[in-house]
Amino acid sequence: MNLAVSDRLKLILKQIEDFVTHEILPLESEFAQKPFKELLPTLAEKRAKVKALGFWGPQIPQELGGMGLALVEHAYVSEALGRSPLGHYVFGCQAPDAGNIEVLHQFGTKAQQEEWLIPLARGDMRSCFAMTEVDTAGSNPTLLRASAVKDGEHYILNGRKWYTTGADGSRFAIAMMVTNSEAHPAMRASMFIVPTDTPGFRILRNISIMGDAGSDYASHAEVVFENCRIPKENLIGREGQGFKIAQERLGPGRIHHCMRWLGISARAFEMLCQRANKRQIHGDGATLADSEITQLYTAELAAELHGARLMTLSAAWAIEHLGMSKARDEVAMIKFVVANTMNRIIDRALQIHGGLGMSDDTILSSWFRHERAARIYDGADEVHKLSLGKRILRDYRR
Amino acid sequence: MNLAVSDRLKLILKQIEDFVTHEILPLESEFAQKPFKELLPTLAEKRAKVKALGFWGPQIPQELGGMGLALVEHAYVSEALGRSPLGHYVFGCQAPDAGNIEVLHQFGTKAQQEEWLIPLARGDMRSCFAMTEVDTAGSNPTLLRASAVKDGEHYILNGRKWYTTGADGSRFAIAMMVTNSEAHPAMRASMFIVPTDTPGFRILRNISIMGDAGSDYASHAEVVFENCRIPKENLIGREGQGFKIAQERLGPGRIHHCMRWLGISARAFEMLCQRANKRQIHGDGATLADSEITQLYTAELAAELHGARLMTLSAAWAIEHLGMSKARDEVAMIKFVVANTMNRIIDRALQIHGGLGMSDDTILSSWFRHERAARIYDGADEVHKLSLGKRILRDYRR
Amino acid sequence: MNLAVSDRLKLILKQIEDFVTHEILPLESEFAQKPFKELLPTLAEKRAKVKALGFWGPQIPQELGGMGLALVEHAYVSEALGRSPLGHYVFGCQAPDAGNIEVLHQFGTKAQQEEWLIPLARGDMRSCFAMTEVDTAGSNPTLLRASAVKDGEHYILNGRKWYTTGADGSRFAIAMMVTNSEAHPAMRASMFIVPTDTPGFRILRNISIMGDAGSDYASHAEVVFENCRIPKENLIGREGQGFKIAQERLGPGRIHHCMRWLGISARAFEMLCQRANKRQIHGDGATLADSEITQLYTAELAAELHGARLMTLSAAWAIEHLGMSKARDEVAMIKFVVANTMNRIIDRALQIHGGLGMSDDTILSSWFRHERAARIYDGADEVHKLSLGKRILRDYRR
Amino acid sequence: MNLAVSDRLKLILKQIEDFVTHEILPLESEFAQKPFKELLPTLAEKRAKVKALGFWGPQIPQELGGMGLALVEHAYVSEALGRSPLGHYVFGCQAPDAGNIEVLHQFGTKAQQEEWLIPLARGDMRSCFAMTEVDTAGSNPTLLRASAVKDGEHYILNGRKWYTTGADGSRFAIAMMVTNSEAHPAMRASMFIVPTDTPGFRILRNISIMGDAGSDYASHAEVVFENCRIPKENLIGREGQGFKIAQERLGPGRIHHCMRWLGISARAFEMLCQRANKRQIHGDGATLADSEITQLYTAELAAELHGARLMTLSAAWAIEHLGMSKARDEVAMIKFVVANTMNRIIDRALQIHGGLGMSDDTILSSWFRHERAARIYDGADEVHKLSLGKRILRDYRR
User: Fold this and answer.
1) Cβ contact (<8 Å) for C279 and D32?
2) pLDDT value for D165
3) Most buried by CB count within 10 Å: which residue of A37, C2, D207, D309?
4) A184-198, B137-151, D227-241 — which is least confidently predicted?
5) How many angstroms separate the CA of residue C113 from the nearest CA in chain B?
6) Alpha helices in C323-358 (DSSP H)
7) How many C-beta neighbours within 10 Å does residue C307 have?
């Protein structure tokens, strides 16, 4: 297992880190105060700069205009980008588009790729992913209810989804719908491309989350399909392949989240250390950094972060060299380990900031609110722990 | 130590719980969606009903128009009110007015009481408390910088404060200002009544906290004093008594917070149990309540909550029967124990709600954000743990 | 709920604490170094002194020669005794005899009481309790295998049990055996008095536990019943009542353990504080007590211990005033809360003692080893958490 | 950073694992029941077999007769050996001899090497390391008191040490003594070779630890130096170099412990999984492995163990390729991370084993007792956390 950073990557990383520091971090206070929509022009400029530098789409295959980095390489880049909530968007590797690009690249027909994949990979349009349904556990495929019924040359879609990230402003959705309700649970559903201007597709609301409904990319919608009629050519892969494709999509999707979370964790950890050195607690100039309690927690979190990073790199290496199915246990582990490590680091950084941490004068309060979801989406902690624990224990059954 | 609920209190409690359930909880979605200012007329009606029922000001002395409950009794009532973020406000026992009432009742001159205490206790005006300063540790009195300088018949106040809760809409502030900078650290400051319409007093901003600046009572301001001139009769107690009064104010203030947090905890725990019973995880109708993991966490949190409640009641009993100074260790304990128990229960309730918990469709996300501050204000966890630990260890020094 | 210590009890407590300090604690190093058997003469002397003082059998009914304390009172006494591993034995309230006394007092025939109960309560003999079987979960009554078959005027017992505490040196065992294998799970078993000199009853071994097989009262045996024939008059209660009696026995048994664990916790906590004040860490005389980390953990553990004590007292009050079945949830809570709190306090006290804590120069290492079992016996943590969690969640099912 | 296992190492590892499984694990019950001394002949046979296979001294330089593995390679081998408490001894890489070999190899004179190093590396004698003193913090060099005073051609040693592992049966000790009490704290002490048959050197006792004083290699002595006169040629390196040598010795020593702990952890984890699959909890054959709680903890511990292993390998790589001083933070991290992970895994494995886990019928209870010390020796958790936290925070000071 070789986790080394090549000299070539070192150079790239340095430039990307500088870009994040000088071009993206300064946007943070605007991000905190304005609707995302209003940042779009500025972000478009930044994206143009990134393209000019040759860093667009670190994980996107070169034939689609990206850098085509290997997964371990992307882990390092993604951590650098994750230091800002805008990093991945500016570099064209944001979820859920990154996952949709992979799906269309791997499973899309040539026609689908030309119409949807190419402009998506270029950043000329955005997309969303409609899978999660209200009131049923996303982890259980048998509970899915939204459906697509074939009607001649079309499918007619009906149902409701929520937590469809970035639906607001998307050009199309990839939707998971039941097509074969009587089939084996793993074969019940299929994936479809649904242009968002299709009659019958409607955004009910941007869900108000942690006090804010957001807008455009920074939003999560509840969407409804009401006799939404799409051409049968919009089926991705074959009927019944929906969950299979989702598995291929979510596995790497999870590690992409982990990589980004490492960036958040690293930045929050830095903020913790910086603030501790600044915050006076005694008249003699002693700061929180001089307090043993701060030192204790700093050491513990540094070790946690170091471990989480190694585990993520190791999982990336395993996906790349052994394949997704052999990497499954490692991916399950990092999904819950990195999410929880990030949440603990944010929490401690906030605590060290005191009242300032509660305020929106730093990015911490935004992370505290929104990154709490990391322990829920793409499989809650408990779901991953149970399935991992079961698999491990089964190996010892005689 | 008698923690029993008298029969008389049982009757009262039952009525108060019903009132909270039927009159206050239904306001929760409005509270989540509208500025607090817009709720004021409705809340005024509810307050009138509470007065008509004889439940106004549970902790306010009877001579000031309250119920005059003993502290252990108030603990039970306060938990009932804490189930809604509006409960204490509607019953006239919200912070920081409750603390200000105590200060004026105990230390105010007759003139001060007539002008400020009586209308405050009646709920005819609101007040705020300006103590915390930006960038210095509130726990260390030697770091306080805002000052009041005597000038004939007046004091001239200068400085900046933040986290002045509810300044927006307050009729007056009680402000802690350095009057004797060369004195012993504990004798450097004094408390003043500052009418908010005094020239030189200004609300710089309602601080944006966890994504929301709030308004009126539901806000925390940054305020500035610029050559703010007040009559010398507005001094509370004597010069240099500021910290002494603050101690008298903050001790009970802390237990009042704990009582309210128990209400939040109890309600969040209920929501956890209800949601677990509703959330299907299998096609056969099995719910999250059938999962051993849910059962495990439920049991652990139930025990934590039970312990936290007993500790709070015990501390209330100690304050009442042994006095604040002998109850000091118990108050320090509950400050961090109850805050952390509440935070863990909210976190777990949110996790059980999944995506719904992240959304503003329930009150949980609001509590997740705003009650995080419980581990910071009125002495951060670490501050209380250190001072308590020191006191305990000192007793074993030979 | 009145948890007060009466003036009468205060006087008693003071004397008992003094007795423990001056008469029992000095035996600790002998206890650590010698087989228990060799301590018996000294312990007999101490018991005689206790009887002379009128403190024998704090929980034993007065008609049997004990003090007949109420349960809340006994909680205070038991904590005082728990400070030494010999306290309960010296005062005649040690498990499993205490439980056996209750069983015979409540369910024994007059003949059984005369032959076994009276000398047992007096401390003239010891007894053991044979219930747990190797390899099956004690928490599940359907898995019990040892059996008693009626044969005319006798029962013939066959089977194997382990963790039969103090079998070595006991005059009789109370044994739980399957008599009605086809009955409802809760009605399958019965309890019998088995004199240890009955042919066919045999101690296979004192189990080596944590490096030591122990002897006499300080041992846990594996015992075997091989065609062990006892008169049918030795049945306790009626056939099939075994589990019912066990429930009556184990509920109070659990709280007795908790009370004792509080004593261990209190003593270990004291040792922590004393050692922290003694252990130099700097040349300037600073000790571990001056370290913020020590202060932090001390405060956290003090709060845990205070909470655990209140919960135990509250459960005792509930058993006394509301009955065992209404106190069931509280008893489940303290079983796991107090056991874990004790384990954490012992662990931290050991850590503060460093190498000394690992050695047998203090009592801590013995507690670290042997009190680990508290999270296992009489229902493992997980068993109590699951059943408690289930009961709570069921109440919210609609 | 390349953590890969070469094909050559894979072959070796496989053979070593088989050897441990078939030749060493079967000795475990003897190890639990007999004094170590009685195992010596059997162990000598095993050592001979290991030598014959060419696996003697995996970490010992080839010129001294060992395998001369690189540190990352040794990490893998050491984990394999750690599965048995006898593994390292049988392969000749046990502490403290391994550290003493490094010291003599790096700092010994040619004469010292011939007399002591060569037979030590061959396993023909054993040695011990006398550094820790009673009652003072080993982490603070200014508190050391035992002294060596030059007297012509000799040094005269006086003082007392404890936790001198394996002194019983050792041919010589390496002792850390104050030679220059007035010097800079880091320059006060020197290291000496003290043959154990030197008059004035005496083993006061094998300390009774966790109930057992042990013997021979499996013991930790309190030793005394009373006018113990040794030739001046027995000084290692130069006067005042003691702490410098200790640093060189303890850094790698710590990672050697971590590697061994990984082996213990891996084995305890396996035992957990095996027992969970065997332990019936329901009549229908369901086992603890079917319980969600078991699955939850299994997953969490698997992730912890995986993280701890990666961190240890990464630290080994860093020591090898960047040098000890650049690896310092990583070594500090693994010292507390791996020790705590091991302790948690042992604790959970014991819990899964229930009563069996408390007994000496498995190796778990021995590990539970003796490996608790891992959080104390070679720098307690708190010591490493504080120094690491300080270093990290200092980097952010402006």
Assistant:
1) no
2) 96
3) D309
4) B137-151
5) 38
6) 328-353, 355-358
7) 26
DSSP per-residue codes, B353-364: HTHHHHBTTSSH
Please compute, for residue C330, the number of CA atoms within 13 A of its CA located in the half-sphere on the CB side: 25
Q: Nearest Cβ partner of C283 from D143, D163, D369?
A: D143
- At position D201, the amino acid (one-letter code) is F
Q: Give the per-residue pLDDT at A251.
A: 74
CB-count exposure of residue A387 (10 Å: 0-12, 13-18, 19+):
middle
Contact map slice: A 328-367 vs B, CB within 8 A: 350-351, 354-361, 365-366
Contact C393 B270 (CB under 8 A): no
Report the residue from B300, B386, B388 with minimal CB separation from C302.
B388
Residue C280, chain D, CB below 8 Å: the answer is: yes
Answer yes or no: is pLDDT of A164 > 70. Answer: yes
Classified as helix, coil or strand, D324 is coil
Burial C71-98 (b: 16+ CB within 10 A, else e): bbbbbbbbbbbbbbbbbbbbbbbbbbbb
Q: Which domains does chain B have, with CATH numbers?
A: 7-99 (1.10.540.10), 127-236 (2.40.110.10), 244-394 (1.20.140.10)
- Per residue in D80-89, pLDDT (tens digit) is 999 999 999 9
What residue type is assigned to position A142 of the chain? T
Integer Cα distance of A248 and A246 in angstroms = 5
D282 pLDDT higher than 90: no
* Residue-averaged pLDDT of chain A: 95
B346 in Cβ contact with A210 (< 8 Å): no
B293 touches chain D (CB under 8 A): yes
Q: Residue D139 — very low, low, confident or very high, per pLDDT cuts 50/70/90?
A: low
Distance from CA of D78 to the nearest CA of C (A): 25
Which helix (H) or strand (E) element contains residue D24? none
Distance, in angstroms, between D370 CA and closest chain B CA? Answer: 29
Which residues of chain B fall short of a pLDDT of 70?
137-139
Among candidates C276, C307, C389 on the partner chain, residue whose Cβ is nearest the Cβ of B294: C389
Instruction: In whole angstroms, give the CA distance from residue B124 to residue C154.
Output: 84
In chain D, residues with a C-beta closer than 8 Å to the C-beta of C293 are: 382, 385-386
Q: What number of other Cβ atoms are within 10 A of residue C182's Cβ?
A: 7
Q: Do residues D151 and D201 lie in contact, with contact meaning Cβ atoms separated by under 8 Å?
A: no
φ and ψ of A242, to 5 deg: -55, -50
Are A130 and A174 within 8 A, CB to CB? yes
- Which CA distances in Å does D287 have to A397, B29, B155, C375, D299? 10, 46, 76, 20, 17
pLDDT at B16: 98
Q: Which residues of chain A lie closer than 8 angstroms to B354, CB-CB?
A: 137, 376, 380
Per-residue pLDDT, averaged over D106-121, amounts to: 97
* Tokens at D18, concatenated: 């088989």
How far is the C-alpha of C108 from the C-alpha of C114, rounded, in Å?
9
- Give A115 to chain D, closest Cα distance, Å: 42
Q: Do B350 and A365 touch (CB under 8 A)?
A: no
Nearest chain B alpha carbon to C330: B303
D303 has a chain B CB within 8 A of its CB: no
Q: Which chains touch D (3 or more CB pairs under 8 A)?
A: A, B, C
- Cα(A194)–Cα(C324) distance, rounded to whole angstroms? 62
pTM above threshold 0.80: yes
Which residues in chain A have their CB less than 8 angstroms from residue C293's CB? 292-293, 296
| Average confidence (pLDDT) over C280-305 | 93
Nearest Cα residue in chain D from C142: D283
Residue A334 has pLDDT above 70, yes or no: yes
Contact B307 C337 (CB under 8 A): yes
Q: What is the pLDDT of residue D274?
A: 97
